[in-house]
Specification:
Blueprint lengths: L5 H14 L9 H29 L3 H34 L2 H29 L30
Length: 155
């Protein structure tokens, strides 16, 4: 029997109330949410594929192997999320809101694991390869020559 995290099951139970609503196409709210999560995962996997291509150009075998492993994990998690998405849609057609909620929570857990795999891949190649728009903060420092530097405490 497979174990699920307590937070995943709690999230599933909390979401059951909002799962039953459907859009104009007949998809439930859970299916719409899951579709967005799966699309995000596919985009992340494409980003890791690009990272792997760039890493191969550096001839760093350790980093290439690390990124390749992370990409494999991300691809496997994306495939699993797609399968669960199909099961979620089937449950929605049957009107099984509880199963929809559980599957949505599982898809969200897959996304969290895929995010960890992506973070590992970027850590493998170092800070210089972080793509634009991904939690990058640029700090500009201006040093005033008229202000003397602080002296360290001698305690």
């Amino acid at each position: 029997m497979k174990r699920f995290s307590a937070s995943g099951l709690l999230a599933a139970l909390v979401m059951i109330a909002g799962v039953g609503h459907a859009d104009a196409k007949g998809e439930s709210r859970a299916a719409l949410d899951a579709r967005g999560v799966v699309a995000t995962m596919e985009g992340s996997a494409r980003g890791l594929q690009d990272l792997l291509s760039k890493t191969r150009l550096t001839n760093d075998k350790r980093a290439t192997a690390c990124v390749s492993d992370s990409l494999s994990q991300a691809n496997a998690l994306t495939r699993r999320a797609k399968e669960r998405f199909q099961l979620l849609r089937d449950a929605g057609q049957r009107g099984d809101a509880a199963t929809e909620a559980i599957l949505l929570a599982q898809i969200q857990e897959d996304r969290a694991l895929e995010r960890q795999a992506g973070n590992t891949a970027y850590a493998c190649v170092g800070v210089g390869v972080v793509p634009r728009g991904r939690d990058v903060v640029t700090v500009k420092v201006t040093i005033d020559k008229n202000i003397p530097p602080e002296q360290p405490d001698k305690t």
